[in-house]
Structure formats: C-alpha cells, structure tokens
Amino acid sequence: MIAVSPKTIVLRWALVAGAFAGLLAVMAGAFGAHGLRHIVSERGLEVFQTAVSYQMYHALALVVASMMPALRLNHRLLTMACGFWLAGIFLFSGSLYLLVLTGAHWLGPVTPMGGVCLMIGWALLAAAALKR
C-alpha cells in the first residue's frame, strides 16, 4: 500500500477541482458546439471555444499538479499554483462565457486578470520545481 502524506491529502482539492473543471469544460464545449451555433456570431463561438480550451488545459494542470507531491516539489508553491489556476479559470474562462452569453462588455477587463492568474500559476509551478 502507498503511504499518503498530509501534503498529498491537502492537494486532493486540486484533483477534485480539476476533475470538476474538466467536466464543465466538456459540457460547455458541447453546449457551444450544439446550443450556441445558431444563437451567437461566429466570433462569439470562437471566443466561447477559447474559454473552453483554456479551462480544459488548466483543469488538466490541476489534476497533474495534485499528483506532484510524489515528486517532492515545494508544497507551498505547488498549492499556490493550483490556487492561481483555479482563480484564472473562473476569471478568464468565466468572463468569456458571460461575455458571449450575456453581451456584458464590462467584463472585458476581467479576462486579462484571469490570464495573469493562469500565467502566475505556471510561474509558481516552475518555482516549485526549481526549489526542491
């Protein structure tokens, strides 16, 4: 049997969040492909697909990161990376979904903040790997 450390258990939230975000990305992708095709513009569909793609990429990153304590990476930095990815999914993909579905253009400035969160998450992952 594999011993489970407290650090592994703490990152279990990242696995759950990643799995849930992946599920929602598949559902959103299907909705975009089938439910929005005749409702929004071609550009709107492209924006929606961008949101779905980034959500799925970062859902997978959360799932993989949840397993990284086995590599003995810096736990604090790894946990922070996951937090930034989750925030980035909400801000980046969430604002694009709402922008396409509601036309609320005031959400435009939120999207880059989400992108910055996603980038910070990747930088923190690199830092965790370097600071073993």
Automatic annotation (TrEMBL):
The keyword Transmembrane helix applies. It comes from Marinobacter litoralis. It is found in: Membrane. InterPro entries: DUF423. This is DUF423 domain-containing protein. It comes from the Bacteria. It is a multi-pass membrane protein. PANTHER family: TRANSMEMBRANE PROTEIN 256.
